[in-house]
UniProtKB/TrEMBL annotation:
This is Laminin IV type A domain-containing protein. InterPro entries: Ice-binding_C (IPR013424), Laminin_IV (IPR000034). NCBIfam families: PEP_CTERM. Keywords: Disulfide bond, Glycoprotein, Repeat, Signal.
């Protein structure tokens, strides 16, 4: 059977469009391990295979008076310019129901060749002592309130990403972290082209 020229052209266009669409920079679901994430500044990290907000998760125990951090692996770093206007998010669990009385919990620091930006993306009294996972997110946009160097310049060459996990004023809390993700916003024109092309392909297949 001869191949439809229009179908071949649409296939090529869709492949090119998919390749150009911004994708998630990275997504850590921790289903098979820590995925290169580490804890520092007084956090003792353990990977747990089940019980997360879907699959595995990271369990971090506070071990010192310092504010412990979650550190992104090198695979997450580099040019994030395509994620400007997108979202950074993570899930957290108050594992041992300790009082969430340390406001800097959820402080995200992104360092790049152009400097550093910082923002506490979580409201006070979080994560609550309710035994539930909670999702926290922030836009990668100056309007979100990032302090420091120009955000766009930092995102052009990210060299470090940390999330502060300390949520209690003491050395007793245990926090769970899961589903750390950075996602981009698809360009409207690309998304429309993709949807239109899929519709045309579906119509051609029905006719054939």
């Amino acid at each position: 059977m001869a191949r439809c020229p229009l179908s071949a052209t649409l296939n090529a266009t869709l492949i090119a469009t998919l390749a150009a669409l911004p994708l998630a920079a990275s997504a850590a679901g921790f289903d098979a391990g820590d995925e290169g994430w580490t804890s520092s500044a007084g956090g003792t990290q353990t990977w747990v295979a089940s019980g997360g907000n879907g699959g595995g998760w990271l369990r971090v125990v506070d071990a010192t008076d310092a504010d412990f951090l979650l550190n992104a692996p090198s695979a997450w770093l580099g040019n994030w310019s395509g994620f400007a206007g997108g979202t950074l998010s993570f899930d957290a669990l108050n594992v041992n129901n300790e009082s969430p009385d340390w406001a800097p919990f959820g402080e995200v620091t992104i360092t790049g060749a152009a400097g550093t930006v910082m923002l506490d993306i979580v409201a006070a009294n979080n994560p609550p002592a309710d035994g539930q996972w909670h999702r926290y997110s922030v836009m990668l946009s100056p309007s979100a309130g990032w302090a420091g160097a120009p955000l766009s310049a930092v995102l052009a060459n990210v060299t470090s990403l940390t999330i502060k996990g300390e949520f209690h004023a003491g050395v007793t809390e245990v926090v769970g972290i899961d589903n750390i993700q950075v996602t981009a916003v698809p360009e409207p024109a690309s998304a429309a082209l993709l949807l239109g092309g899929l519709g045309l392909l579906a119509g051609l297949r029905r006719k054939r």
